[in-house]
Amino acid sequence: MAALDDIDLELLDFGTVEPREFARIVRDLPARKIADFMAGPQRRRVLDEVFHRMKDQFKPESAGSRDALIRWRITAGDEAPDVYETHIADGACTVTAEDTGRTPRLTLTMAAPEFLKLVSGNASGPTLFFTRKLKVQGDIRLAGGLTYFFDIPKA
């Protein structure tokens, strides 16, 4: 792949970027560039792709018989947050790209750049939590183990 300075994020088709390459892109981009990019109109396109991949990256053997609805609130400045829900049950992870009105067992709120860092393996949930970049409501034990339920790429 081209050097990061040569990548036009606005035109990049994230659907064709392999998870390991995505992790490398997130790792190597300056925080400000990620923030600017995720504050733009392409944020939803990137979030849709990340959440779409969650069901494929899900490790049912790690989740066991767990049944949990997780609501993700991804913020970007003063705009309303993007809301997604992942439901882990019956050995599968299903994703809904909206607030279904159901009661989640866990709600995670973070800015879009931190979310990308978390799902690409470039940040840890506990570190984001303790630095107040991740807000957790509900089952904190579930939050602590959530990354073990997914095959998170390493750059």
Describe this structure in words.
This protein is α+β, with helices and mostly antiparallel strands. The protein has a single domain (16-149), classed as SCP2 sterol-binding domain (Nonspecific Lipid-transfer Protein, Chain A). The protein is built from seven helices and five strands; from the N terminus they run ααααββββααβα. The chain has helices at residues 19-28, 31-38, 43-57, 60-63, 112-119, 125-130, 140-145; strands at residues 68-76, 79-89, 92-96, 106-111, 134-138. A five-stranded mixed sheet has the order 3-2-1-4-5. Strand 2 and strand 3 (92-96) form a beta hairpin. The radius of gyration is 15 Å and the shape is globular. The model is unreliable at 1-6 (pLDDT under 50).
Describe the structure in brief.
With 155 residues, the chain is α+β, with helices and mostly antiparallel strands. It is 37% helix and 23% strand.
How does the SSE layout of this entry go?
Blueprint: H1 19-28, H2 31-38, H3 43-57, H4 60-63, E1 68-76, E2 79-89, E3 92-96, E4 106-111, H5 112-119, H6 125-130, E5 134-138, H7 140-145
Parallel strand pairs: 1-4
Antiparallel strand pairs: 1-2, 2-3, 4-5
Domain SCP2: 67-144
Pfam family, one: SCP2
Protein name: SCP-2 sterol transfer family protein
